[in-house]
Design a protein that fits this description.
The chain has helices at about 15-30, 55-60, 80, 100-105, 115-125, 125-135, 145-150, 155-165, 190-200, 245-250, 265-280, 315-320, 325-345, and strands at about 1-10, 35-40, 45-50, 70, 85-90, 140-145, 170-175, 185, 205-210, 215-220, 225-230, 230-235, 255, 285-295, 300-305. It is α+β, with helices and mostly antiparallel strands. It has three domains: about 1-95, Rossmann fold; about 120-140 and about 210-345, ATP-grasp fold, B domain (D-amino Acid Aminotransferase, Chain A, domain 1); about 140-210, ATP-grasp fold, A domain (Dna Ligase, domain 1). The strands form three sheets. Strands 10, 11, 12, 13, 14 and 15 form a six-stranded antiparallel sheet that branches. A five-stranded mixed sheet has the order 4-3-2-1-5, covered by helices on one side. Bound molecules: adenosine-5'-diphosphate and magnesium ion.
Length: about 350
């Protein structure tokens, strides 16, 4: 039996989301094929091998459980050594951004999903946009400011943004997820607030033109031969798809699969998705999010999520379900892709 190390929690604004995603992966994974080892990471960054009740992960009470083995060693812990492949069900900082992938590489353990470069390139919204532009994938125009520029002269930054885009604009920390630190600004005062808010979360901040758009998302799966799902559409219950709309009042945001968009738009999106996954050097899986202008029909690639949500209301597993891939099958495919990537890289030489 293959032993899968499922990692959950993490030191990110999306800790709670990870708990829900992990719970779903744990309940869906086929137990006749896979043994699982659970590894929790607290919000403070403490690691544990968790052997308690899975419901406590869902309820966010696992940390208090005595069935935690804290501060285990990666190199000498027998339970950890038995893990055949690691499955980080983590989102955002320290989970989706290449840092934990770097740790897996150092430990020489197979793992699920994108490698170090793809994870970090996709996570940084500015870097990702530059890569998309390099292969002619349209993105919304943007400018960047550093945290220092914002803190020392917010007004000047707001003025530059105004000159470029007017209003409304979106302000985003470069390296976050789940809409944390993101605001839509409709005037100078809101823009200043938004810049300061975003500067709490990163040293690089993007301001981009707001598009009056449908949010169309698509799932990709693969290492070299990339499969794409049909696209789906999100109709947020708030003015934009903010953290609350995503996870708290999620039931009111609607998901439509397949997306009710023209066939040629869907085809174009599939093509862009494959190209985007390739240009960031993606492996395993990603969900790629687009904005489709309600006014012009223009398509913009908004972002690529290398460890998309697996919660009950998450798009990624729903997109595959609609394309005929069940939850347990999806997990199996993702795991197999992780082994495939590892084995391919094992053939590489690192010395002459
Ligand atoms: N340029 C834009 N125009 C219109 N809506 C946007 C734009 N950028 C972001 N949004 C809205 O904000 C949400 C979060 O932004 P996104 O870039 O996806 O960040 P995150 O990584 O936090 O998901 C999107 O789902 C969308 O609703
Ligand atoms: Mg998003």
């Amino acid at each position: 039996m293959i032993n899968v190390g499922i990692i959950f929690g993490g030191r990110s604004g999306e800790h709670e989301v990870s708990l829900q995603s992990a719970y779903n992966v744990i309940t869906a994974i086929e137990r006749s094929k896979y043994e699982i080892t659970l590894i929790g990471i607290t919000r403070e960054g403490r690691w544990s091998i968790y052997s308690g009740d899975v419901e406590k992960i869902k309820n966010d009470t696992w940390e208090e459980d005595p069935a935690n083995s804290w501060d285990f060693s990666f190199t000498s812990d027998e339970t950890f050594k038995k893990i055949d492949i690691l499955f980080p069900v983590l989102h955002g900082t320290f989970g989706e951004d290449g840092t934990i992938q770097g740790l897996f590489e150092m430990l020489d353990k197979p793992y699920v999903g994108c490698g170090v470069l793809a994870s970090s390139a996709a996570m940084d919204k500015d870097t990702a946009k530059r890569l998309f532009v390099s292969v002619d994938i349209p993105v919304t125009d943007w400018v960047i400011f550093t945290r220092n520029e914002i803190l020392s002269d917010t007004d000047r930054c707001a003025g530059i943004s105004e000159e470029h885009f007017g209003y409304p604009v979106f302000v985003k920390p470069a390296n976050m997820g789940s809409s944390v630190g993101i605001s839509k600004a409709h005037d100078r005062r809101e823009l200043q607030e938004a810049l300061k808010e975003a500067a709490l979360y990163d040293i690089k901040i993007l301001v981009e033109k707001a598009v009056n758009a449908h949010e169309v998302e698509i799932a990709v799966l693969g290492n070299t031969d990339i499969e794409v799902s049909c696209p789906g559409i999100i109709v947020p219950c708030h003015e934009f798809y903010d953290y609350e709309a995503k996870y708290l009042t999620g039931d009111d945001s609607k998901i439509l699969i397949p997306a009710p968009i023209p066939e040629e738009t869907a085809e174009q999106i599939k093509e862009y998705a494959k190209k985007a996954f390739a240009v960031v050097c993606g492996t395993g899986l990603s969900r790629i999010d687009f904005l489709v202008s309600k006014d012009t029909g223009n398509i913009y690639l908004n972002e690529i999520n290398t460890l998309p949500g697996f919660t009950n209301i998450s798009m990624y597993p729903q997109l595959w379900a609609a394309s005929g891939v069940s939850y347990p099958e999806l997990i199996e495919k993702i795991i197999n892709l992780g082994f495939e990537r590892y084995n391919q890289r094992r053939e590489l030489r690192y010395v002459k």
